[in-house]
Amino acid sequence: MTFTPAELLAVMGSRQLRDDTTVFAGVGVPLLAAALAQQRHAPNLTMVIEGGIIGPRIKPGKLPISTNEMRAGHRATMLPGITDTFLFAQRGFLDYGFMGGAQIDQYGNVNTTVVGPDYARPKVRLPGTGGANDIASLCREVIILTFHEKRRFVPRVDFVTSPAWLQGDDSRARAGLYFGGVSKVVTTLGVFGFHPENRRMRVEALHPGVTLDQVREQTGFPMLVADRVETTAPPVADELEILRATDPERRFLA
Amino acid sequence: MNREREFDFVAARRRLEAKPKSAGEKLTSVEDAASRVTDGAIVAVGGCLFSRTPMALVREILRQRRSGMTLVRNLMCTEGEFMMVAGAVERVMTAWMSIGLPWGVSKIMREYVESGKVAFEEWSHLGLGLRYRAAAMGLPFLPALTMVGSDLARVTELKTVQDPYTGMSLAAIPALYPDVAILHVHRADRFGNCQIDGYPHMDADIARAAGTVLVTTEEIIGEDAVRTYPDRTVIPGFLVDALVVVPFGSFPHECYGLYEADYDHFQEYTDGINARGSASVAEYLERYVYGPATFGEYLELFGGERLARQQRSARALTR
Lengths: 254, 319
Prior knowledge:
heterodimer; A: alpha/beta; Glutaconate Coenzyme A-transferase; B: alpha/beta; 9-stranded mixed beta sheet; 14 strands; 39% helix
């Protein structure tokens, strides 16, 4: 069974979501992964999109381009407005935050703001946080889906847009982030978690055929290894069929 | 930067107390409405990204050659690029700026921000929402659990506040009282009682937060229609200073249920930027903003067939 890296990411991401939960999903692969979970093993999963959308049903072939256009709200159960949607998360109603990551460090912090040391005169100005900072601050746990490349996995991000474990240990709670944190980083190579005390990233599972050396080659910081490293089960036919039916134009799966 | 002006709730309250809050007629021309925006103003734009953007007002503000403004929008799209290239803004305040994933990172935003011509003040999406909400509530700030610990807190000089009950530290999100709000709604009566379908975005809070509220509407409805369904009113008329009837007033951005955003147009616009950079946007402004004298002439550049196509796809998506 052949599949693209994006399909692998969507499948492995979807398996992280339990039934009877809620997920704050970003557009693109995270939303596809959530839609897959909902159609397969988590029928009572509620998707929430930051444009102010609760419970949409993604229309096959009409995947949303932004978080707040008509496609995103297809057959939604509620459109409460943007601020109030985030306040559901602040109250604690959102179990998962499900997002991508441009640049990520060993403590799970994500940068989508600037490349370079000077915020006011950046080398590259990126689009910005959108709701990612809020999702990372407010959800019960955050799962990041990203392609595993050395340029993305850096020792220290240039700018902490979305806070995870900050400088490790208990720095998150000390900064006033009393809840949540990144629980998993799902990549094209494996599934990663964080050491429960020092909060550094560690390998917890590898996708079939992937070696620890490959992970180390593609990671810009020393990657810890969990006591037991599992091997994930490869994507199965019905997972890929559901995904491909949802994104027939292969807008995000290619 | 005079930040205190942004969250001075006493001054904002006094301005509102001194202002007429009429239940009377608000209908006027787009030229007259836009003339209430002054150079250097903090202008909050309703809608979000390419949804319910008050494009007719954006166009007219550009035609009146305003400068030195701060443009505020939770997710900023092509209107921000127009303002940058026209030299109308010195600062944007937003959580995210570009058109959307298929068109990549905004090259115009990169050019103007990386060169230091325009300051990009980045707040989180909820952070900006709570800035409006705090102002809508008449307060100087709201406590929150977001933005703290990140570098966004550092660059926005976000302060914290100690909860007097638990002793815990919380973000103190400062209010934002914009000078002007520009909004586009689905329908209103001539007194400015506004109804919005689909996504409410942040418009209701923005209208309460701003000193002056300018609204364009797809259609005017009778007073009876408002009084029969008062629960549909999201912005009461006494908040509204000027109202203009502009069908397709968000185009080529979307208006929920009425017309879909014109993605082909975005592609042509982005192709131009990819080929010729900001010079392409300057040409675009000549063709779409400074050239056509009226919004009707502007819409003719897209053509009736294109508008009808976008209406059909909106109906298909929201039925």
